[in-house]
Specification:
By secondary structure, the protein is α/β, with parallel strands linked by helices. Helix content is about 35%, strand content about 10%. Helix 2 packs across helix 3 and helix 6 packs across helix 7.
Length: about 240
């Protein structure tokens, strides 16, 4: 099966000021966000990505360019409106401290499946179109590049949370239990029987095992041994096959 790496864009000027940016044009990464994106790009540099799919919004395209700058190959670079930010309608551009006093805020926190933003979209519609886009691209990349294909989708916090909730088999009403920080990496594999959520909300750690890791067809009973890390490979290569030393 293919592997999708979900990357949230780095921190923006709106994030730093506590403003709900939504689809506002011109919202860009701040200095911290650029550093976060560079750190994520460094982690991804060890993986030959077949594609970096981005939300059309500037902050995601900035993050994608930083990732692509560290790739030695030439991944595909489509923009995908299906993973663009939620349409927050009249909430867009307002401060979070102010929005937290609205009646709808409580619905978003406790029953997001019932939340419809005034003049915008529902959170259920947001999840449906983002999950459909990710699964469509994942199937296409696996068909074109084979089951070992690894690709990146650069998107937004609520979008990635909703994708992870779907992959985990969680109702959308539980998706606020998931955290997705700026420039974090989450990893999903869509298997024949069920999605496999390999990692969520990581901002450190070696990813080179994704270059050669074959996903098991079934979930290993007991949890399995996990992927072989570089240090483990060196230790196994140096051991005596007879003594195990």
């Amino acid at each position: 099966m293919a592997t999708v790496i979900l990357v949230r864009h780095g921190r923006t000027t709106a994030n730093a000021s506590g403003t709900l940016a939504g689809r506002t044009a011109g919202v860009k990464l701040d200095e911290t966000g650029r550093r976060q994106a560079a750190r994520t790009a460094e982690r991804l540099a060890v993986i030959p990505l077949v594609a970096v799919v981005s939300s059309p919004l500037e902050r995601c395209r900035q993050t994608s360019r930083i990732i692509l700058d560290r790739q030695s190959g030439s991944p595909l670079t489509p923009l995908e409106s299906g993973i663009t930010e939620c349409d927050y309608g009249q909430w867009q551009g307002r401060r979070l401290a102010e929005l937290s006093k609205e009646k709808l805020w409580s619905v978003v926190q406790t029953q997001p499946s019932a939340a419809v933003f005034p003049g915008g979209e529902s959170m259920a519609a947001m999840q449906a179109r983002s999950v459909a886009a990710i699964r469509r691209h994942d199937a296409a990349f696996e068909a074109e590049f084979g089951p070992g294909a690894v690709w990146v989708a650069v998107s937004h916090g609520d979008i990635i949370k909703s994708i992870l909730a779907d992959a985990l088999g969680m109702h959308l009403d539980l998706f606020q239990r998931i955290s997705v920080n700026p420039a974090s990496i989450s990893i999903v594999r869509y298997g024949a029987q069920r999605p496999d959520v390999v990692a969520t909300n990581t901002d450190a750690g070696d990813l080179s095992w994704l270059r050669t890791a074959d996903a098991p067809a079934d979930a290993p009973v007991g949890g399995g041994a996990g992927p072989v890390q570089p240090a483990d490979s060196e230790a196994l290569g140096a051991s005596d096959p007879e003594t195990g030393s």
